[in-house]
Design a protein that fits this description.
The chain has about 500 residues and is of the alpha+beta class. The protein has helices at about 45-50, 55, 60-65, 135-150, 190-195, 200-215, 225-245, 295-315, 320-325, 330-345, 355-370, 370-380, 390-400, 405-420, 425-435, 445-455, 460-470, and strands at about 25-30, 40, 80, 85, 90-95, 100-105, 110-115, 130-135, 155-170, 170-180, 250, 270. The chain is globular and about 70 Å long. It binds adenosine monophosphate and magnesium ion.
């Protein structure tokens, strides 16, 4: 490991709050260097969040630092331990098998932890190689930033660093490291770990750490741990509602991939809904279809019950832990989902019957399977007027998404009747809908096209997608090609847990 003294600039100061926990929570170790690393993609937005000096961004040491070859001053790298339920089954101890937390830093924009994913083996690697491949690292990098652009709570990604070092998966690929950034990386499984071992002391230390670092307001509650559980439950409900509204499918909602801060965490075989099918399975390794689009709200609740069970020793009353979830999660999900769907549909304010209208809309999408993103984007431009030739012409782009145009017309008539119940100026409504219905999402075929170029060492596709997805609600005509339906070559694309 190279000494940090020769860094060209001053780096923000680390405060490393997680490393202040007792050693039982992690193993201190340095990342394993990657030979001759190079920059594949950088998010300048995240660099700004961290307050990284511009000189560092352009220095040849940038790739060295975020490949894990060179430590930043003040960094105390470690891999954290956690456990979890995978695909509904208790999996025992897992942990950061290929992630190194470099440390945390605090600035006027908040507290940020930087984690390198793919920086080599740790005591939690369970026989695996500790590496990540270029393909999955680009996907995680782009999707983290795409979700942030969409306004969905998520961990961020500063950069992807590549290297020519071979990594064996189904075939030989090359290694890469993603530098992830978030206020914290504590998972539901971090709590399950201690509960499963009857280690109440550590359980409480972890809960105290989360409260003191991220949720100090919970201290004022009668039982701060109950308040924390309710906070996680509420935020998770809001998070899943956001996922559903943008058509995001996580693909591996195991409890070790659920953030205690309510952030989207661990991008693997995720997908964005294209031709609408609520039963779509985006993860080729999910043989039972546990993590379909439609199951996500139930699975999140199941995961919260696992967390609630882990909280039992902190709550003293066995009957209150799942109640904390029941009293918060469903309402948070339903309210956020209704709010987001009203915005997507251009409903100025909610009416009592909207739950039915939204349900009917999903039934209609399920039956006719239009592209989810294009449907809402094109809907945003339609007039609310009830008839006329001009309107029929304006409806054409939306009708083009349907084989059964009459069914589309029938739904549009219902939609317009509903709009009429809460009158709203067309221009204002359209502007509001365009701000709620993205033009651009990270479709699998877009990521795949950028990855294919990147494998040939052309990273322009990655950077172009990043630039576009930062402002997914803006028209950006120069990126029109990135809003298109998947091309024929993409019809057989499959994404699995292999990463
Ligand atoms: P994931 O399915 O990516 O959430 O990973 C589940 C667990 O497997 C976590 O503990 C990861 O750290 C670990 N893991 C996944 N891939 C690797 C790898 N290539 N090397 C070491 N650990 C891994
Ligand atoms: Mg994971």
């Amino acid at each position: 490991m190279n000494a940090p003294e020769s860094l060209p600039v001053e780096f923000p100061v680390f405060d490393n709050s997680f490393a202040a926990l007792p050693e039982a929570f992690y193993t201190r170790l340095e990342p394993h260097p990657l030979p001759e690393p190079y920059v594949v993609g950088v998010s300048t937005e995240v660099a700004d969040l961290l307050g990284l000096p511009a000189e560092l961004m352009h220095s040849p040491q940038f790739a060295e630092i975020f490949a894990g070859n060179r430590l930043l001053p003040g960094s105390e790298p470690l891999a954290a331990v956690y456990s979890g339920h995978q695909f509904g089954v208790w999996a025992g101890q897992l942990g950061d098998g290929r992630a190194h937390l470099l440390g945390g830093l605090r600035n006027d924009q908040g507290h940020w932890e930087i984690q390198l994913k793919g920086a080599g083996r740790t005591p939690y690697s369970r026989g695996a190689d500790g590496r990540a491949v270029l393909r999955s690292s680009i996907r995680e990098f782009l999707c983290s930033e795409a979700m942030a652009g969409l306004g969905v709570p998520t961990t961020r990604a500063l950069c992807v660093i590549g290297a020519d070092q071979p990594v064996r998966r189904e075939e030989i690929e090359t290694a890469a490291v993603v530098a992830r950034v978030a206020p914290g990386f504590v998972r539901f499984g971090s709590f399950e770990h201690w509960a499963s071992r009857d280690r109440s002391r550590e359980l409480q230390q972890l809960a105290d750490y989360v409260i003191d670092t991220f949720r100090p307001e919970c201290r004022d509650a009668e039982n701060p741990y109950d308040a924390l559980l309710r906070d996680v439950s509420r935020r998770t409900g809001e998070l899943i509602a956001h996922w559903m509204a943008v058509g995001f499918m996580h693909g591996v909602m195991n409890t070790d991939n659920m953030s205690i801060l309510g952030l989207t965490l661990d991008y693997g075989p995720f997908g964005f809904m294209e031709a609408f099918d609520a039963g779509h399975i985006c993860n080729h390794s999910d043989h039972q279809g546990r993590y379909t689009y439609r199951n996500q709200p139930h699975v999140a609740q199941w995961n919260l019950y696992c967390l609630a069970d882990a909280f039992l020793p902190l709550l003293k009353h066995p009957d209150v832990s799942r109640a904390a979830v029941d009293e918060t999660y469903g309402d948070a999900f339903a309210q956020t989902f209704e709010r987001l769907m009203c915005a997507k549909l251009g409903l100025r304010h909610a009416l009592p019957d909207d739950e039915n209208f939204i349900g009917e809309t999903f039934g209609f999408l399920q039956q006719h399977r239009p592209d989810f993103t294009l449907f809402f984007r094109r809907l945003s431009r339609l007039s609310g007027g009830l008839d006329g030739e001009a309107m029929a012409k304006a409806d054409a782009p939306l009708r083009d998404l349907f084989v059964d145009r009459a069914a589309c017309d029938a739904w549009l008539a219902n939609w317009r009747a509903r709009l009429a119940q809460t009158p709203w100026d067309d221009g204002e409504r359209q502007a509001s809908m365009l701000a709620a219905n993205p033009k651009y999402v990270l479709r699998n075929w877009l990521a795949e096209a950028a990855i294919r170029k990147a494998k040939l060492k052309d990273y322009s596709g990655v950077q172009r997608l990043l630039t576009c997805l930062r402002r997914p609600y803006d028209e950006q005509p120069e990126f029109d090609d990135l809003a298109a339906l998947p091309p024929d070559w993409a019809s057989g694309l499959e994404v699995s847990c292999s990463s």
